[in-house]
Automatic annotation (TrEMBL):
Protein name (record): GTP-binding protein Rhes isoform X1
PROSITE patterns xrefs: RAB, RAS, RHO
Membrane topology: Lipid-anchor
Gene: LOC108565064
UniProt keywords, alphabetically: Cell membrane, GTP-binding, Lipoprotein, Membrane, Methylation, Nucleotide-binding
């Protein structure tokens, strides 16, 4: 599948800009929401109304890397603090975590990808739909480190090409997009290492400020929190999303509302909570039995994000799709 061709077809140019902005009301609302941080991913559609996140508060995290480097183990540690000794090859896993932070709902979708790349077109689609990335390699395998570097270059190249295909007007100077990502050097507890910390850090220093390196060990639970904390820092996301900065809540089976109800506030508007109190009020829950968005939805996500990448150069007020309506139609089988 030629996704860049899809970008050109879905965003043909200024003469059909309405294909990227369905209606004027959505145009105005979403252009304000996209003023900072990564472009939004679709909001949740399987929970009650009071936990619907705003579009600006929805993000997709894509975890990439070679096979057997510990991608799934890092995700398991992040979501539930668990580690599984046995190895099961991953085809693709999808997770969703909801947060309540300072009175607002935030949604983080996590796509745990395969290290064998059985479907190259799907991998390119994950590049285009992802907002933030964790590229994992093993500190005892130089081949996986070199693959991590190739993955970063492929992500930047794919997003750049997609943005150029959907841009309008005169030819512009090619500028690499700013994509928040962490190079996670897993298995740092191993004695025999073929990749040094200095080498990995030196590579990141040659990149922009949105690329950082963190060594970690999912097995020993070493610096796993730092991997995601640093990712949220470079992505300009709320730091309460990091594992140790919010209260973990267990989802009740069958409950339409995964998050607990917000605590009533009796403080006057001028009252300001301390940082410690704000952190203690933040909570997060892993949504059980979440369904992965369909390929149709992902293609629509790709359409809006690639249109935004091109239109932001010529029209900073470009709009976005109504993801909640799109997922609702998908649920109804439309």
């Amino acid at each position: 599948m030629d996704f860049l061709g899809c970008c050109s077809w879905l965003c043909p140019g200024s003469g059909s800009m309405k294909s990227c902005t369905p209606d004027k009301q959505e145009h105005n609302t979403n252009s304000q929401a996209a003023s900072s941080g990564p472009n939004p991913s679709p909001g949740s559609s399987n929970s009650c109304d009071d936990v619907h996140p705003l579009q600006k508060n929805c993000y997709r995290l894509v975890v990439l890397g070679s096979a057997r480097v510990g991608k799934t183990s890092l995700v398991s540690r992040f979501l539930g603090g668990k580690f599984q000794e046995s190895y099961t090859p991953t085809i693709e896993d999808f997770h969703r975590k909801l947060y309540r932070i300072r009175g607002e709902i935030h949604q983080l979708d996590i796509l745990d990808t395969s290290g064998n790349h059985p479907f190259p077109a799907m991998r390119r689609l994950s590049f285009l739909t992802g907002d933030i990335f964790v590229i994992t390699f093993s500190m005892d395998s130089r081949e996986t480190f070199e693959e991590a570097i190739r993955l970063r270059e492929q992500i930047l190249e794919t997003k750049l090409s997609a943005g150029a295909a959907s841009s309008t007007g005169l030819t512009r100077k090619k500028t690499l997009p700013r994509v928040p990502m962490v190079l996670a050097g897993n298995k740092c507890d191993r004695e025999m290492k073929t990749v040094t910390v200095d080498e990995a850090m030196a590579y990141c220093e040659t990149q922009d400020s949105s690329c950082v390196f963190v060594e970690t060990s999912a097995k020993r639970n070493l610096y796993v929190d730092e991997v995601f904390y640093e990712l949220f820092v470079v992505a300009n996301l709320p730091l309460e999303m990091a594992p140790n900065h919010h209260k973990r809540v267990s989802a009740n089976f069958g409950s339409p509302c995964p998050l607990p109800p917000p605590m009533p506030s009796h403080h006057p508007k001028k009252y300001t909570l301390s940082v410690k109190r704000r952190l203690s009020d933040a909570c997060g829950v892993v949504t059980p039995n979440v369904r992965r968005p369909s390929i149709r939805t992902d293609l629509m996500i790709m359409r809006t994000k690639t249109c935004n990448m091109g239109d932001n150069m010529s029209n900073p007020n470009s709009g976005a799709l109504n993801w909640r309506r799109l997922e609702h139609e998908e649920t109804l089988g439309c």
